[in-house]
Design goal:
This protein is an alpha/beta fold and about 375 residues long. Helix content is about 40%, strand content about 15%. β6 and β7 form a beta hairpin. The structure holds pyridoxal-5'-phosphate.
C-alpha cells in the first residue's frame, strides 16, 4: 500500500466537473487582476469567519507582512510570537524591520503559552502574533487581555486554521486581524499561492487594500509604500469552487483524527493531539509524539507512508535569527517538540484501509 501525506489528485478528480468551468470563465473574461471572483471570495470568507471585511492577498506570508505594514509596525518595534511555527510568522516580523520576541509553547497543544506573554512585553512591544498551529486556535482570551492592558495589536496567524473555532468564535475574527493561507496543502488550498486577511476594522481593511496595491489611493497617488500583494482572479475562482466543500473536508479530517485516536488509545507511547474542550480544530495536520521519532519517520517512509516533521528546527535556533542571540535551551518546550513530533496523513480522501495501514505501521514501530 502507498499512502501519501496529502493526495490533491484525489480531490481534483472529485472536483474536476466544477473546477474547469470556473477556470474557463476567467479565461473567457481575460479579467486576471481584481476580477469579480476576488470580491466574491472576500465576501464568502468574511461571512464565514464572522468578520466585517476580508482582503484577498497573494499568499499567507504576504497577508502577515501586509498586516504589519498596514499597522505601521517596523524598525524599533517588537512583536511577540511563538518559536514553534512555519518560518513565515517570524520571517515577516523580521522583513518588516521589527524584532520577533519569542515566547515558549504549551507542551500539549504546541500553541503559544499565554501565561508567559505578559513577561515578554516591553515598551517596544506593538503586537502579539499567535499562531493557531495545526488547525487549533491558541487560547485567545488571555492574549486579548494582555493586548488590551498594554494597547497592543493582535495579528492571528490563522494560516492553518480557517474555519476553526473557540467557544464558537471563528479563527481570525478575534484579534485586530487574522491571516489565512491558500497554499495547496492548507484545508482550503488554491491552485498555487494565495492568502487573505480578515478584520472587524473597516479602516484597517482599507489600508490593506491600499497596501496590496503599492499603497496607492487614488490610483497613481502614493501616501505610503505598499507592494504588489494582490490575489489573482484565477486563484479566487478556483477557491470559490473549493470553498463549497470546506466544511465537509473539515468533518472528514475530524473523523480521520477520531479513527487514529481510537487506534492509538491503548498505546501509551504514542501521544495523540490534545484539543481543548472550548476548541474545535480543523486538523490541518494530525501530529503525534513518538519515542525515537526520526527512526519512526524512516520506518513509515520505508513502508510508503508520507509523513513529515512540522517543524524540525524551532525559530530561535534558525541561522538567520542568530543576531537575536538565542541558545537552543531558551525555549525548551519548542525545542523538545521539534525533536519529537510527527505528522501523519489526515487528508479528507484518505480511505479506511489507508488510515488503518498507517496506524498499524506506527504501532508496529513503537512496539518493536
Ligand atoms: C502556510 C503558513 C504560512 C504562510 O502561508 P503561504 O501561503 O505559504 O505564504 C504562514 N504561517 C503558517 C503558520 C503557515 O502554516
Amino acid at each position: 500500500m502507498n499512502v501519501p501525506l496529502l493526495d490533491l489528485k484525489a480531490q481534483y478528480t472529485l472536483l474536476k466537473k466544477e473546477m474547469l468551468p470556473a477556470i474557463e470563465a476567467v479565461l473567457e473574461s481575460q479579467y486576471f487582476i481584481n476580477g469579480p471572483a476576488v470580491k466574491e471570495l472576500e465576501d464568502l470568507i468574511a461571512q464565514y469567519s464572522g468578520t466585517k471585511a476580508a482582503v484577498g492577498v497573494s499568499s499567507g506570508t504576504d497577508a502577515l507582512l501586509a498586516c504589519l505594514m498596514s499597522l505601521n509596525i517596523g524598525p524599533g518595534d517588537e512583536v511577540i510570537t511563538t518559536p514553534y511555527t512555519f518560518f513565515a510568522t517570524a520571517g515577516c516580523v523580521w522583513r518588516a524591520g521589527a524584532k520577533p520576541v519569542f515566547v515558549d509553547i504549551e507542551p500539549d497543544t504546541y500553541n503559544i503559552d499565554t501565561t508567559k506573554i505578559a513577561a515578554a512585553v516591553t515598551k517596544k512591544t506593538r503586537a502579539i502574533m499567535p499562531v493557531h498551529l495545526y488547525g487549533q486556535m491558541a487560547d485567545m482570551d488571555p492574549i486579548l487581555a494582555v493586548a488590551k492592558q498594554h494597547n497592543l495589536y493582535v495579528i492571528e496567524d490563522a494560516a492553518q486554521a480557517i474555519g476553526s473555532t473557540q467557544n464558537g468564535r471563528k479563527a481570525g475574527s478575534l484579534g485586530t486581524c487574522g491571516c489565512f493561507s491558500f497554499f495547496p496543502s492548507k484545508n482550503l488550498g488554491g491552485l498555487g499561492d494565495g492568502g487573505m486577511v480578515v478584520t472587524q476594522d473597516e479602516a484597517l481593511a482599507e489600508r490593506l487594500r491600499e497596501c496590496r496595491n503599492h499603497g496607492s489611493h487614488p490610483k497613481y497617488y502614493h501616501k505610503w509604500v505598499g507592494a504588489n500583494f494582490r490575489l489573482d482572479t484565477l486563484q479566487a475562482a478556483g477557491l470559490i469552487v473549493k470553498f463549497r466543500h470546506l466544511e465537509n473536508w473539515h468533518a472528514a479530517r475530524r473523523a480521520n483524527a477520531a479513527r487514529y485516536n481510537a487506534f492509538f488509545a491503548d498505546v501509551p507511547d504514542i501521544i495523540t493531539p490534545v484539543v481543548r474542550e472550548y476548541n474545535q480544530t480543523i486538523y490541518n495536520q494530525y501530529v503525534i509524539r513518538v519515542p525515537r521519532r526520526d527512526a519512526c519517520l524512516e520506518h513509515l517512509k520505508k513502508n510508503n507512508i508520507g509523513c513529515e516533521i512540522y517543524y524540525p528546527v524551532a525559530m530561535h535556533v534558525q541561522e538567520c535569527f542568530a543576531p537575536l542571540g538565542h541558545k537552543p535551551g531558551d525555549f525548551p518546550t519548542a525545542q523538545k517538540a521539534s525533536q519529537e513530533t510527527l505528522a501523519l496523513p489526515i487528508y479528507p480522501e484518505l480511505t479506511d484501509e489507508q488510515l488503518r495501514y498507517v496506524a498499524e505501521k506506527v504501532i508496529e514501530f513503537v512496539k518493536s
